[in-house]
């Protein structure tokens, strides 16, 4: 994990949490331009492009789009195996249908990581709001990293499981829990998640915080906390506020947390390994 994403620039974190979302992601449409197999429209485009090979069933094709592989802990291309096609699709080519998502209900595919060979099952089914894509994993992990502690990984796994069936509000709550567990692991165990963040940032100003905090803008942590609070609290009974927690927003939250994990766990390990290699080489030159 090498990305150090800085799209969380100076943001006013006052006001209602839906207002924070609009300030945080003023150009949210850019995430919809990133094709991934966990997005229904992108998944359908992929299988439409691969339809002739998929129907042959002998040599399943590799995808052009990718899916996050929890075992590899990165985005990978997938080999697509068609397990079941909806009866209407079996009788004609997909290009003949205008309402393709609906015509694909129900269909089932196996997605195999081209690198580690881990399997996931993709199911297109009729959900409460229409055709829906669910990705069912054979592995644990979610958006974790190699050196993420188990206590933090647990909540990231729960977030991924919720997202896989479209429960975005529940997924964002689990990201907040992962953040709080990360803070506890770093020695900040008193008070609420917001209090822990405040203490961490106070220590940063005093030069007493872990060095990785300097790689993030303070709004990164505050906004993750505020989103989680907004998702889990009653908000006066106004559930319409939950509408901002969609697939696009979830993708942004995931990328933000990936940057946090890289700063807290992966970058220090990389730096330590680099220094150890230099020291070992220097020792041999004596």
Keywords:
alpha+beta; 2 domains; five-stranded antiparallel beta sheet; DUF4145
What does this structure look like?
- There is one protein chain.
- With 286 residues, the chain is of the alpha+beta class.
- It has two domains: 15-139, no CATH class; 143-286.
- It has eleven helices and five strands, in the order H-H-H-H-E-E-H-H-E-E-E-H-H-H-H-H.
- It has helices at 17-24, 29-32, 40-49, 51-56, 87-90, 100-103, 150-164, 168-185, 193-205, 218-232, 247-284, and strands at residues 62-69, 74-84, 107-113, 119-127, 130-137.
- It has a five-stranded antiparallel sheet, covered by helices on one side.
- A hairpin with a 2-residue loop joins strand 4 (119-127) and strand 5.
- Helix 8 (168-185) packs across helix 10.
- The longest helix is centred in the last third of the chain and has 38 residues, at 247-284.
- The radius of gyration is 21 Å and the shape is flat.
- Residues 158-247 form the DUF4145 domain.
- InterPro entries: DUF4145.
